[in-house]
Specification:
This protein has about 270 residues and is an alpha/beta fold. The chain has nine helices and twelve strands. Helix 5 links the parallel strand 8 and strand 9. Helix 1 packs across helix 9, helix 3 runs parallel beside helix 4 and helix 5 runs parallel beside helix 6. The C terminus is likely disordered.
Length: about 270
C-alpha cells in the first residue's frame, strides 16, 4: 500500500514565479503547523533547484536510509519529516534532465518515501505551471494550494497563471499569501510597503479567494532561513513567527479535518544499486 494513504491531507505551496519567498513560506508554514501540534511532512518538489535541505538545516551529505530496498526513510529536522532531491545528489550537481525524467523522479520521491501517519504533507512546488504541478495534481487528490506572491505587479501577473492552472486541474485554492508585504526599519521603526500595497487584495477579489496571510520583509527571516533555523523554530515569539502561526491556523481551518487523499499514481520501485 502506498505510504500516501497514511497522510490525511496533502497541500502545496506554489507561485507563478521564483523569488517571491515560496520555499521560505513553505518551510515556516510546516514548522508552524508542527508547533500547533500536528504531524507534518515537507516534500521538496523542486527537482532542478532543491532548497529544503539548506533551509531545514540538514547537514550536507545526509541521505535517506533505504528500507526494504524500496522506500526512502524521510529525514527529520525541526520535528518535520522531509524528503528532497537535494538529499540524493551532490548540491553542486546540475540536474540536466528532460521533462519525463523530472516527472519520474518527482513521482518516486512522492510515492516511495516512508512517510509516517501525518496530518499534513506540505509540498514546496517549483515556480511556474509546468510538469511537476500537473503530475502532482494527477497523482493525488490535493486538499488545496496556497499561492504565494509579493504585492508588485509582475509577481501578481504570474500568480494569476498559477491560480488559473490549479483551477483547470480542479485543485481548490486555499488562499493567497502576500509575502514581503511591509518592511519595518530596525533603526527608526518606520513601516514601508516596499513592493506596493493592495496587490494581494486585488488578486484575491479577482478570483473570489481570500488573502490568508501577510508576511513581513524581515532580514531575520532571511538570516535564519539561510542558517537552517526557520524563524518559527528559532525565534517563536517574534512578529514574523506569529504571522506564520496565524497562517498555519487559517490553512488548518480552510482544509478541515476529514481525510481527502486518495493516491492514484503509478507504483515506482527503487533500490540501493
Amino acid at each position: 500500500m502506498s505510504k500516501l494513504a497514511q497522510i490525511k491531507h496533502i497541500f502545496c505551496v506554489a507561485s507563478g514565479k521564483g523569488g517571491v519567498g515560496k520555499s521560505t513560506t513553505a518551510v515556516n508554514l510546516a514548522v508552524a503547523l508542527h508547533a500547533e501540534g500536528y504531524r507534518v511532512g515537507l516534500l521538496d518538489a523542486d527537482i532542478y533547484g532543491p532548497s529544503i535541505p539548506l533551509m531545514m538545516g540538514v547537514a550536507p551529505g545526509t541521505k535517506p536510509e533505504i528500507r526494504d530496498q524500496r522506500l526512502m526513510v524521510p529525514i527529520t529536522a525541526h520535528g518535520i519529516e522531509c524528503n528532497s532531491m537535494g538529499f540524493l545528489v551532490d548540491p553542486r550537481t546540475a540536474m540536466v534532465w528532460r521533462a519525463p525524467m523530472i516527472i519520474s523522479a518527482f513521482n518516486q520521491i512522492l510515492s516511495d518515501t516512508a512517510w509516517s501517519d501525518l496530518d499534513y504533507l506540505v509540498v514546496d512546488m517549483p515556480p511556474g505551471t509546468g510538469d511537476i504541478q500537473l503530475s502532482l495534481a494527477q497523482s493525488v487528490q490535493l486538499s488545496g494550494a496556497v499561492i504565494v506572491t509579493t504585492p508588485q505587479d509582475v509577481a501578481l501577473l504570474d500568480a494569476r497563471k498559477g491560480i488559473e492552472m490549479f483551477n483547470k486541474v480542479g485543485v481548490p485554492i486555499l488562499g493567497v499569501v502576500e509575502n514581503m508585504a511591509t518592511h519595518i526599519c530596525s533603526s527608526c521603526g518606520h513601516e514601508e510597503a516596499v513592493f506596493g500595497t493592495g496587490g494581494g487584495d486585488r488578486l484575491a477579489e479577482e478570483y473570489g479567494v481570500d488573502v490568508i496571510g501577510r508576511l513581513p520583509l524581515d532580514i531575520h527571516i532571511r538570516e535564519r532561513t539561510d542558517s537552517g533555523e526557520p524563524v518559527v523554530a528559532s525565534d517563536p515569539d517574534s512578529a514574523a513567527s506569529k504571522a506564520y502561526r496565524e497562517l498555519a491556523q487559517v490553512v488548518h481551518n480552510k482544509i478541515g479535518h476529514e481525510s481527502t487523499v486518495k493516491p492514484s499514481g503509478p507504483k515506482i520501485s527503487i533500490s540501493n544499486d
